[in-house]
Amino acid sequence: MPETALPVLIDVIRGTTVESRHRGAAVVVDAKGKVIWSLGDPELVMFPRSAIKPIQAGLVMAESGAMNAFGVSQKELALSCASHNGEPMHVEPVLAWLDRLGLSPENLECGRQDPGIARDLHELYRSGGQAGPEHNNCSGKHSGFLTVCRHMDVDPKGYLDADHPAQARVCQTMADMCGVDLSRADLGTDGCGVPSIAMPLHALALGMARLADPEADWPSKRAQACPRHCRGDGRPSP
Q1: For the chain, where are the alpha helices, taking DSSP H only?
Q2: Residue 234 vs residue 119, higher pLDDT
Q3: What is the pLDDT of residue 231?
Q4: β-pairing, 187-189 with 17-23?
Q5: Is the pLDDT of residue 236 over 60?
Q6: Model-level pTM?
Q7: Do 166 and 154 form a contact (C-beta atoms < 8 A)?
Q8: What distance lies between CA 224 and its chain's CA centroid?
């Protein structure tokens, strides 16, 4: 669908004048893939980027058994599924998590990033510290990848390569959850270095719907691994 055919979703107004208009598409589906509501083209191909973190990192970590094996907490699970501001309440759990894996910030391949809150940025440098990869807003997701690497007993170095065993597992899980063949999908690179895979908007919506309402005929390991079925100790519910 040509960009001009997409509906206007947002008007940005300065004073009483529309300064810019932003077009897009949206879709809501159920766990069977039935479209409940849509605006624009539900099959529009896009890069989901951070929107896919709950599957890309959280689900893969839980389903593989890595979450149980390394005692990943609910806080750490949340960090793996989120983008954060590099505040102490984000960085400290990441450092403790890496230490438990026998790793360090040097193993994070997401790159360094300054904290996103001015107060924390100023305090960090005022205290003589400096920003590192643990401050990257995606360090939780990358810690999840490293946890999967440890559990698979594979070398974590190069875990962002599309052909690394950890990323191969991520890609297959995303394809299963989103009901789409990703073997020939357009491959890009996200801002934190992760392979970013293009998919239809409908496929992303289906993956999220299935995450919230697992298929009844799926293997019990996947159904139990969906985050809404996790207890406070990080283990799947019985």
Answers
A1: 53, 60-64, 66-69, 74-80, 88-100, 118-126, 139-152, 165-178, 201-212, 220-225
A2: 119
A3: 44
A4: unpaired
A5: no
A6: 0.90
A7: yes
A8: 19
